[in-house]
Amino acid sequence: MTGGAGFIGSNLVRHLNAAADDAVVTLDKLTYAGHRENLAGLAHPERHTFVHADICDRERCLAVLAEHRVRAVVHLAAESHVDRSIMGAEEFVQTNIVGTQRLLEAARAHWHALGSDERARFRFVHVSTDEVYGSLAPADAPFTEESPVRPNSPYAASKAAADHLVRAAHRTHGLPVVVTNCSNNYGPRQMPEKLIPVVIERALAGKSIPIYGDGEQVRDWIHVDDHCRALVRVLEAGRTGEVYNIGGDCEKTNLALVRALCAVLDRERPRADGASYAAQIAHVADRPGHDRRYAISSAKIARELGWRPALAFEQGLADTVRWYLANGAWLAAVANAEHREFMARQYGG
To answer: 158: burial class by Cβ within 10 Å (0-12, 13-18, 19+)?
Structure first.
């Protein structure tokens, strides 16, 4: 599991550690987005190994694959924040493109060294994003696996490039890969610079809650637990060489999402003055190249693998808010000096 100390990765490690007998090896560079705290309290710690390493280090990756006789790679390690990619794209190119290629090279060498039965079972699952497809107009049908790739941000472009490299490794070298493209995730342990944690943190601190532009940008939201279940199904039964889109079938404007968050906070931790946290909403200058709408069809994964999102958005959002309210120590641990500097530079205050 590359990036297993990050948001989606740590939730997937927890899911597999609790539900399966397989051992899981987490390989993570521990950048600003990866934290050992995310892997604390596993149900079966004896079935988990943590390796501090960079996917750009091909030889280290190959050594880890060989040492643990890895039978599947789930590749989640990535620079993933659009705002950071706009500030500077070079790290995104290095990690998302160069890192993915070097990991593919290590995986291919490891795969060739396996016995015939192990080779037949081996899988490389590359976890990507719906942002590679670009932006939709309000009346457009949701993205499918056949939609053209038209990334609009440096982040999305780097992920699209990685997707192509993974496809090429399959078509050229036969590496048994599967690519997934998922919509916006939410849930526990998401880095506090992403939208939902930003709203919760700033609302409770009495600060303005920033919304880009008019707030009418539309995103499709999926709880991270539903995403993890989908990844497990892909790992178990996904067809090699295929792409599977994973969506929550839950389109919300950014403004509607933030107002829903404020309503949950109003119930769970009312402001001392009795006012709604929505009073703290402040519209700020829009982000350059801001995609207007994402929506993604999960018809293929539902049809082929029987997966559908199970958690209702209202319940998932309330559970997420309660998790952050109950885990202030986690937030304090991950909100380091670099994070505070980024937030001050991005939003002020």
So the answer is: buried
Angle 40-44-45 (CA atoms, 0-180°, nearest 5)? 50
Active site residue 28: no
Per-residue pLDDT tens over the stretch 76-96:
999 988 888 988 999 999 999
Active site residue 131: yes
Q: Is residue 304 part of a domain?
A: yes
pLDDT of residue 349: 53
Domain-located, residue 164:
yes
Among the listed residues 28, 54, 79, 131, the single catalytic one is: 131
* Apex 182 CA angle, 329 and 343, nearest 5: 40
Q: For residue range 150-200, what is the model confidence (pLDDT) as tens digits?
A: 999 999 999 999 999 999 999 999 999 999 999 999 999 998 888 999 999
Question: Does any domain span residue 269?
Answer: no
Residues in the chain: 349
What residues form DSSP beta bridges with 179? 126, 243
Task: Pick the catalytic residue from 28, 79, 133, 155.
Answer: 155
Distances (CA, A) of 66 to 72, 73, 80, 100, 346: 12, 12, 28, 18, 42
- What is the spatial distance between Cα 267 and Cα 1, in angstroms, rounded to a whole number? 37
- The answer to the question of residue 320 being in a domain is no
CATH number of domain containing 68: 3.40.50.720
Q: How confident is the model at residue 339 (pLDDT cuts 50, 70, 90)?
A: low
Question: Which of the residues 28, 54, 79, 130 is marked catalytic?
Answer: 130
Q: What is the pLDDT of residue 328?
A: 86
Is 286 in the active site?
A: no
Number of folded domains that form the chain: 1
Give the domain range for residue 306. Answer: 7-189+223-249+294-311
CA angle (28, 33, 35) in 5-degree steps: 60
